[in-house]
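Entry 14. Ran structure prediction on the chain below.
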Amino acid sequence: MEIIQVKKKICMLGHFGVGKTSLTERFVYNRFEEKYLTTIGVKISQKLLPPVYCKSKEKKIQYEFLIWDIASLDKFDVMVKNYYLGAAGALAICDLTRIETSEALLDISQKFLEISPNSKLLFIGNKVDIADDAHLERKRLQEMAEQFHSDFLFTSAKTGEQVEAAFLRLAEQLY
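Output, structure tokens:
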């Protein structure tokens, strides 16, 4: 069976310190760093996903994700718009230990979709391994996901829990 290879730009969205870089590092390189380093600008990583069967095309599709780990910026300017242009999808990430990060996610996601309206979103509640009240955030993430006709997952970049599943779920939304 023929395998079609397709490159897709994926953006990592969220407030500073939510784990965008850590999730990317865990997914692409299967590693986790304890020390926090702020991303400046954008860091682009890539990973080839396993081929998946697409019924509508009766072929296998193999995505290569170009993952744009975008620094959290206080203002929405031309630079941020350029980062979002051409994206096929995004992981919209909040830190389950900091409520304010989920509140900021609505605005970030709306601005992202204004620039890339045909993109798919997957909402992520990260740091489930250390979140005491993750069940409280579950309802908030579910409501956000429903508002954007999307889905959500809880992840832990530290333990690797659901990290690969998150990227694969986003890939499923693309075909």
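The first strand starts at residue 3 and ends at 13. Will compare against last week's run tomorrow.
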